[in-house]
Specification:
homotetramer; Rossmann fold; seven-stranded parallel beta sheet; 7 strands; about 40% helix
């Protein structure tokens, strides 16, 4: 994979150390779309950046997932009040105070066209598993493989991949479908994610694989 | 902080975005010593590297923590059998299969001189909070501040800092007391940790602060 | 305590076995009000019953808690769609399918007069800790003692008490401030709660104690 | 089911309220054997009682589970020191201080003849899921159905059933394979478990069902 091979020496070191094995695909994937909402995808927002290519990649995945009846989960990050986040979290990440339920900042990009049966999970932290019911939804749907897309690679994507790996899901990251405001943070974290938590693979491989998934009974 | 300022432009970008605020100290710290055991601290081991300066830093923290009656928790990573880790985790991180309970690989560095009242937590994953009782121990001890030391910066240190932050602990990382087999992964992850999860500060600041903590009743 | 002494022989057996110790109060309490919403408090609802005396008890606790600046958290149980609960949960507890976000069924009793700074937690399961961010809110607020009120004793109250105890919070249940649709289930579960997870005490003791709590700085 | 029908009026009330639905079996069961260790199964121990019939029931389940290659997990409750349990837990349940790792009290009944590939999970609380890696083991093994056996019905069995239900596992309790020191607590909790968290069924039904499970590839 080009992204994680950008530093071949480091890659060799990690391979020798016993990291970066391939987890491959299980039998029942789900698609996670992380934080593709106002605050992150608008370059005018303080935590936003231009994620046009990420949106474009996700828009290629969504129709296939829907057609193959693969469960889809969207997340955003929002709170009723800053107290719900907690004082320490707000100190470290001051923009947390602005992520208020109902504001444009936390609304999904409309072009994703979320369907009512596709849960929208309001997550309080980077990982989509922390403080949410996502894990129980995945178990109910017999999911064994989690495809992680969205932003930001160095925060919510990495945190979500680590959690899903911890629970022994196969975790797959289509490289073109995740993004970050910083190119260097994106690169460094994609390397770590591939070495420790998930298989980082080309988007085309994921599109191809999803087309072969048998439709749920 | 020198470490996180190594890329001043990136730092400015993150400050502007509303990351990297200072959480400061609470009133009741605990010291976590992560994975300072055979497999990691011996350069002869496949996942090991030379962490002499990290050990040296931790050996400065331990006597003060003991003298000030600050709770201390050690971790290692071990399993009765690879089945306890789970197939997917073993595929991604093949050395997991070798981390067997009772082997030298998972034994703490003897110079840390762990006392019987200082819990040794066998953690199954990177974060010291995942699949362990650490959180309940911290709450029982009224801890509000977690000092994270040990290795590896890009794995267990970052994972532990993220979890502790998620729960709204003040998280403090003494820069000289954490280490990694890869200098570039160390640097990149220390930046992310400081921006998102913890205050990365000089060891001397932590030593100084601990000396001023009032001894628990 | 009258409630848990209703079967003195059983109580003696449990005392001898090393259950039912007193946890007492810590220094920083919080008040939890569990599921005092339409579906449970209206006798016309299928899972509802007459909880007038429970409401009355909670209405005595709320003004003191507000006056003493004790953090207050309300819960309800609601979902965007039944898929968010999950198929198995819906099979075991079919009324789950009817607990939809925005419906009257899941709205708090208006007489509780929740303030905007008092979080309303939408919990997906019996325990207020499962799949929510409550734990991180309690840690942020330095809470060490959780007062559990509301309904139902045999479900959400017991589940919440068990979780809070698991994390080493002092758990206090004012007997008159919890209720259940079944008198026998109420009685049996109050006994178990007192033996295993929480101190079940008279409401007057809690009112008296809260009046002595020092107001947070 | 005879056990939960012992109070037909209460049962009718719960059915009408939308509790006690049947979850049935999934495709991939696991067998949990909870706390069948010295402290609980010896009538001479303060928390012990005569659980001969429970042991006998479990001894009927184990050979079939092994023959059908169904994953089996044993638990016990033990700590290195009481500090690992935490002060509040030790106050409420004083016998916790005596459950020390390595003592006879925490050793499994030898007649269960645990195999090395059957994990022994040291759990710190009632639920086998709290503070352990059990959930990730179940996901790794693609388990969707959890058969809960052992003791005590009013504590660790109920807590484990609630957790497994929360995560959307099918939960099955063979009535003769769970026990409690108190007959009335056993009866009351079996009713609640069947109404809220699990299908309580005759042992023979479970034995019959396991014989029809296809052996894992």
């Amino acid at each position: 994979m080009e992204h994680s091979l950008s530093n071949p020496e480091l890659r060799r070191q990690y391979d020798a150390a016993g990291f970066g094995g391939r987890v491959g695909w299980g039998n029942r994937p789900a698609l996670l779309v992380i934080d593709m909402a106002g605050a992150w995808i608008s370059p005018k927002e303080r935590i936003g950046s231009d994620l046009t290519t990420v949106v474009h990649s996700i828009l290629q995945l969504l129709p296939i997932a829907r057609q193959r009846q693969i469960p889809i989960y969207f997340t955003t990050m929002s709170y009723g009040t800053p107290e719900e986040a907690g004082e320490i979290v707000c100190r470290k990440i001051p923009h947390t105070r602005e992520m208020l339920r109902g504001s444009k900042r936390v609304q999904l990009a409309p072009e994703l066209d979320r369907r009512p049966t596709e849960p929208l999970i309001e997550k309080p932290r980077a990982s989509a598993f922390f403080g949410t019911n996502l894990l129980a939804m995945l178990i109910a749907a017999r999911v064994d493989t989690v495809i992680v897309t969205g932003c930001s690679t160095s925060g919510c994507i990495r945190g979500t991949c680590e959690s899903a790996h911890n629970y022994n899901f196969h975790v797959i990251v289509p490289a073109e479908a995740v993004g970050d405001r910083s190119a260097s943070a994106h690169e460094a974290n994609l390397f770590d994610i591939d070495a420790r938590y998930a298989d980082v693979v080309p988007l085309n491989d994921v599109l191809h694989k999803l087309n072969s998934v048998s439709i749920a009974a």
